[in-house]
Structure formats: C-alpha cells, structure tokens
Design goal:
Elements: H1 11-31, H2 59-70, E1 73-78, E2 81-86, H3 89-97, H4 100-103, H5 110-116, H6 129-142, H7 144-148, H8 151-172, H9 180-196, H10 206-221, H11 228-231, H12 244-269, H13 275-288, H14 299-330, H15 333-346, H16 362-374, E3 384-385, E4 390-392, E5 395-397, E6 402-405, H17 407-410, H18 414-417, E7 430-432, H19 444-450, E8 451-453, H20 471-488, E9 489-493, H21 505-520, E10 538-542, H22 545-553, H23 555-559, H24 563-578
Parallel strand pairs: 2-6
Antiparallel strand pairs: 1-2, 3-6, 4-5, 7-8, 9-10
Helix pairs in contact: 5-12, 6-13, 8-9, 8-20, 9-14, 10-12, 12-14, 13-14, 14-16, 14-20, 14-21
C-alpha cells in the first residue's frame, strides 16, 4: 500500500498545524527534554537508521568496540526502533536496578511473544501483576536459605558426574570426550528432582533430550528482530496462507506447551513434595486472597512457570561448567593446578570435597567467578524496555526504547575489573583479611581460611527486578561440581586428529597447541543469546587411584537415592521458614 501526501495544504490547516507544532515544542522545552539528544552512537541513515551497520556474527563484540568510541550508553536506531546499549556496570546498575520501576519491562516480539509462546514464557512477560505473582511464588523456594536445603541433591548429582566422567575415560581413554551432555544431565537431574520429583539417570533419557530441544528453540527464537514480523509488524495482518511464520509459531507453541504441561502432570502425580505441588497450591491460595485482580495463574500458566525455570536453570548451569572446563584447558591450567594444591591441603585424598570445605576453598569460588566474567554464558540476554521517556548522563532515552545490557562489555569494564580485563585472572576476586600476626607465623590452612572474596559485581545473572531468582541454587551447584572436578581429574584438550594417525608426539602437541589458541579466541563460540563454546573434546584423567576407590565407595549414594525423603525434608524446612507446605 502506498501513501501520498497532498500537494497543497489549505492555508487554515497549514497554520493550525504550525501552531500545534509550536505548542508541542514549547511544552517539550518547558520539560527540559526537547533540547536533549539521544545518547551518542554510529551515524544513522534516513529510514533504516543503523540497520546497515548491524553485524550478523557476534554482534556483542562489535557493540563492545563501538562503546570505546561512543561511550557507556550508546544509541542505535533499527527501522525507527530506538535501542540503547549499556556497556558499563555503572550504567546498567543506574538504569536497570536503581530505576527498575521504569526499566523492568520487556520488548514485544510478535513472533516469540504472541505466536510461539502466546505470552506464557516468563522471560518475555511484561513487568505486571501476573509477573510479580510469579516472583512471589518463586521467592520462598529460591532464596539463599532455601538454596542451602538443596545441597544434598547437588552433592549426589556431582558425585554421579565424577563417576560418569571416569567411565568415559575408561571407555575413550586419551581420545577424550565431549562433556556437555554429562553436564546437562547433572544440572537437569537436580532441577527435575526439585521441580517434578524425578531424577534423570542418564544423558540419553527422552525427557532430557526433549528439554534440550525446547531450550535450544527458545535461544534461537527469542532474540528481538530475529523475524521479519518483528521489524515489520503490519505483516502479521496477512492471512495465514501468506504468513508461514504463523504455522511455525503454532507448532512451536504446541510442542513446548505439551512438554511443560506433561512435566507438571507427572510432578503432581509423584510421591512426596516438589516445586510443582508447592507452586500449584500457592498459586491457588494467592488467587483466593484479597485484593483480587493482582495476578492470576491458570494451570497452564503454572506449567509454563515451572517449565521455564527448569529449562533455563539446567541450560545455564551446564553451559557454565562447559566454559569452566574450556577455560581450564586453554587459559587456566596454572590456576587450576594451584586450586588442586589447595584441595590437597584442605581436603586431602581420603574423601570428596563438601560444602563444609567452602570457607577454605575461596580460590575455587574465585576461579568460578572469573570464568563467569571472562566467558559469560549470556551476551545480551533478553533485553529490557522502557515505556516512558527518561534522561541519563544528559541524554534523552526515548519512550519505547529497547535497553540492552551488553554483558560481554560489562564484564570487561576496566573501571571495575582493571586494565587486564581481557585476561583470565582469578586473583582479581581475592582479598586477604587484615592480618593480626606476621604472615610467616601462620600455616597454609590458616592462610586459606583468612582469604576472602572481593565485592566485585557478578552481573551475568541480570539486574534489578529481572535478576535471575535461581542464582543462589546455581552458584551452589557450580561450586561443588567445580571443586570435585578439580579434586578428581587432570584435564587437557584431546588431540583432534581426524585421520586417527597421531604421528609423532611433537606433531600431536603442535596440533593441540593450535586447537587451544582457536578455542581461546573470543569468536570461538556460537552466535546465539546463550553464549556457548564451540564443540570440543577433553581428556578427564583421574589424578590417582584414590579417585576410583572413593567413587566406588560412593556408588550407592547416587544409585539408591531416597528422593521422596530428601524432598520431604526440604518441604519441612520450607514450612518452618515460610509457613507453607
């Protein structure tokens, strides 16, 4: 359809429009905002704005480079859609946290929100009464005290992870293995036990495979602007015969809906306590309480609520472990060796590390924090949006702006992390307590007990009212898995010799060195919202015979789990602290 402007405007109409324009400008001047420009950014072209400059491959790297020219708050225009990119911790904290009431909404993606999820997916929901009800239902189950009650499950799953990796070494030897599927099983089994009352015993279980497919679809489809109708919303008015994306949206919704509802039904039917039962009862109770109209959750909405927690939790935790191992074999070997020396002093070789050891294993938490900073498992995540105009740093942020924290840039904010922010340096997270006696008079274990973590921001879990509610559970799981991997294995990159002819040891070492540099590059990752390394294989070599002996002793711990008793114990603790069972 083509629109034509009239060639002649009647005089009365012309002066009326002129007067209206003047009045509007005067009002804007009175508010002090008309003279303010949007934040700086690359030069825009008429109509298309910066669309021609948007790179398709690893855009967060280009945004980071642009931020060095245009500053911490950068403005882009995509076909008239204002986008504000935040590249420093201070800017993200100021807007997304301190002004959370204004910046907690989500941009609307017609394909993802309206068609593929029909408004059900938590990550894309607006910040309204229904979303706040979701948060209230999660709070008693995911706060720090609740997270501590799930450590027994994380202990069990991390023990099985060691056993699975040892079995993989016995099977594949120095050829190595791709660990991601085992990390996914470990994280998903713990999450599914809590949410649905059922563990996942192998990495080939159909429920796990389906969960992986659902989450991969979310990662690919959730990016704003990834579909033509997000850029040209009017196209969605076309009849279905001319709009093939509508049928695709229907298929995606039906598949994910069946996945979440089926999991909820199984969770409700399982014996013992679990999140499915708790949240279903709490949602019904919340609806019955005054004031009415403050959010309502149908059974389907509860299913999506719990399912979104499950899929996001296991995916991010597994990806973080994969980056931990890749960092180990590319840039972190000396740091991991130091962590193993600490483990040998604190834990020894006669038992597995436990959560009780954590105060003396601060260096391992520092390694985890640095891994999450150096290779954040999200780059831009799901963006925020503001419905009202705002001003910041002397610039105008238009109403309707998409506001995107660039986690890659924020994690390299030199004002926070220092001039070596591109390097992997776990020590940046360490701060020693003030000594009360000369250093030479203290033993190694006492020195380790006095080391503290610096209060540096770990930002990849989000900001403000949209921060990840499961971050405490995730951090506990990462600690015990990383500590035990370091205790049990020496890990190195496998020799990727496609011909099966390793040749001389020197040739194999040269191939491995080249592969290390390839995988350590900042572009050695996928191109999605969920930031994953390229596929790799690693050799998990047991550090000594004590590993095999101890895992044999602990085999009963993960093969014969009284899950109902464990979950009911968590329920009792929840009732004691929250008054709800």
């Amino acid at each position: 359809m083509t629109y034509h402007l009239p060639l002649v405007v009647p005089a009365v109409g012309f002066f009326a429009l002129l007067l209206l324009n003047i009045l509007v400008r005067l009002i804007r001047l009175a508010t002090g905002r008309q003279h303010l420009s949007p934040p700086p950014g690359p030069r825009r072209l008429p109509l298309i704005g910066n669309l021609h400059q948007l790179v398709q491959s690893h855009p967060w790297l280009e945004f980071h480079r642009w931020s060095k020219t245009y500053g911490p708050v950068m403005y882009l225009d995509m076909l008239g859609q204002p986008i504000v990119v935040l590249s420093t911790y201070a800017a993200a904290q100021d807007l997304l946290s301190k002004r959370g009431a204004r910046y907690s909404d989500r941009p609307r993606s017609i394909f993802f929100n309206d068609l593929a999820t029909r408004g059900m997916h938590l990550a894309a929901q607006p910040y309204d009464d229904t979303f706040r009800l979701h948060q209230r239902l999660h709070a008693p189950l995911l706060n720090p005290s609740a997270a501590a009650r799930y450590r027994t499950l994380q202990d069990i799953e991390s023990t099985q992870l060691l056993a699975d990796l040892l079995a993989g070494y016995d099977r594949d030897g120095e050829k190595g293995l791709a660990p991601m599927s085992l990390f996914q099983r470990t994280a998903a089994s713990m999450i599914y036990a809590l949410l649905y009352g059922q563990r996942l015993h192998t990495d080939t279980e159909p429920r796990l495979i389906r969960a992986i497919q659902v989450q991969e679809t979310f990662v690919k489809e959730s990016a704003f602007g990834g579909h033509l109708i997000d850029l040209f919303p009017a196209l969605n008015a076309l009849p279905r015969a001319l709009a093939p994306w509508k049928a695709r949206g229907d298929r995606l919704y039906a598949a994910e809906h069946a996945h979440h509802v089926g999991n909820l039904d199984r969770g409700l039917a399982r014996p013992g306590w679990n999140f499915s039962k708790h949240i279903s009862r709490a949602a019904a109770a919340a609806e019955a309480e005054p004031p009415h109209g403050k959010g309502h959750l149908s059974a389907e909405a509860v299913a999506w609520n719990i399912g979104n927690i499950a899929d996001a939790a296991f995916d991010t935790s597994a990806t973080a472990l994969e980056w931990f191992v890749l960092t180990w074999v590319t840039r972190g070997a000396s740091h991991m060796a130091e962590a193993q020396r600490v483990l040998d002093r604190v834990v020894g070789r006669g038992r597995l590390p436990t959560y009780d050891d954590r105060p003396r294993l601060v260096y391992i938490d520092a390694i985890i924090n640095e891994t999450l900073r150096w290779r954040p498992f999200v780059t831009g995540a799901v963006a925020h949006a503001t419905l009202k105009e705002d001003t910041y740093m002397g610039y105008r942020i238009p109403a309707g702006s998409i506001v995107a924290p660039n986690y890659w840039a924020i994690s390299r904010d030199e004002s926070v992390f220092g001039p070596d922010a591109d390097s992997f340096v776990p020590e940046r997270w360490l701060a020693a307590a003030a000594p009360d006696e000369p250093e030479a008079q203290r033993g190694d274990e006492e020195k380790e007990a006095r080391v503290l973590l610096r209060d540096l921001p770990l930002t990849l879990f989000g900001f403000g009212r949209r921060i990840c509610t499961g971050r405490h559970v995730a951090r506990n799981g990462l600690f015990i898995a990383a500590a035990r991997l370091l205790w049990a294995f020496d890990v190195e990159l496998a020799d990727d010799d496609d011909d099966g002819d390793a040749g001389t040891p020197e040739a194999a070492a040269a191939r491995r060195a080249r592969r290390v540099e390839e995988l350590a590059a900042e572009t050695a990752c996928n191109n999605d919202v969920m930031f994953r390394p390229l596929p790799f294989r690693a050799v998990f070599r047991p550090r000594g015979p004590w590993v095999r002996d101890l895992l044999a002793e602990h085999r009963h711990d993960y093969e014969h789990v009284d899950l109902v008793a464990l979950l009911d114990e968590a329920a009792i603790a929840t009732a004691e602290t929250q008054g709800v069972v």
